Amino acid sequence: MKVKGFLKDVGGASRVTKMRKELIANGSPLPDPKDPIRELADLLHPGRQQFRVTEIRKASPTATTYRFSPVNGHVPVFQSGQYANFYLTVGGSVLTRAYSISSAPYEARLAEPFFEVTIRHNVHYLVPDWFLENVKVGTEITAALPFGQFHYEPLRDSDHIVGIAGGSGITPFASMAKEIAHGRLDIDLTIIYGSVKHTDIVCGDELEEARKAAPDRIHIVHVMSDDDEWDGEKGFVTEEIIRKHSPEGASYFFCGPPVMFFLVDKIMKEMGVPLKRFRHDATAQPAVTMIPGFPMDQAGKSYKITIMRGIHADVIDAAADEPVAVALERAAIPIDTHCRGGECGYCRTQLLEGDIFVSPLNDGRRAMDKELGWFHACSAYPVSDLKIKIPII
Ligand code: FES
Questions:
Q1: What is the pTM for the complete model shown?
Q2: What's the CA-to-centroid distance between 233 and ligand 1, angstroms?
Q3: Strand 140-147 vs strand 160-166: parallel, antiparallel, or unpaired?
């Protein structure tokens, strides 16, 4: 740095202060539309967007893939394993539901960009039948993406991921497999996929196509729990099967039904897999009676929740075995939710009075929030009458 001299420096500094004051006085209160940082932020996280359904196809006899193309603009950049959040008007209430993206990130960068989700029907906790009955080619729907930490992160994960999946939990791994096959994700992937019968396999053709395109990088092990015709691995996904197909030092990712999560979680502990090497998808929650620590004498009870929104108060009924967020949605009281698994904090709510049970499996609260009585309504259950405060949306 060249020092011009004391007087010149003092003079320069005072001119800068004057110029700064003038710029502030004459500046627009609106954000600069040409701000490149803002443009990048909008590109990555544009918030809620309208998408049009451009294709619907079967992913198995009981699962359907929906393709969404942007009505305007683009599909935001996402990583395999992340999810999209849909805003659905169901029975007069606006519900939000999260679904893992089953298409690959490169498909969102094509000349006609899209993303896809694959939904299994008759899974009571994710309103999938609403999709089946109401969403047709041409339907427009509001969604926001991407969200979630269930993706490969080179600073954290091994470059060989063992994906353990059950049912429609295969979708994030289908996305990873397609991205690897396209040469856009530089990892090896072993998928251990549990189904009841081979006819239940979701995204089977796409998985096989990806495997054939990158046979050295993608390995798929199907495990059938009840299929006499199957001559591969049979039974449940066991420690023996996982050990047999795992390389040394792999990172384990799990996505599947809650009951399978408990099994896999136990196996991971028995195998001594470090916590940072075991990740599970946050979008599926078990029934509260399966969550360790839930006071079983609460099952079947119901309570009153007083909800404060500004100065407005509502009182609703809530069951002890369903999350506070679900009770609000049933009462058509809007609450913003994304992951519905305690991770993202969008449903952050203030507890003014009463007691809640917070799932230890999905307790994503910050330490300070715990101290100050904030909780995540999607993963907390009333165990007394409550008084809570939620933001007006
Ligand atoms: S919706 Fe993500 S923490 Fe509740």
A1: 0.81
A2: 36
A3: unpaired
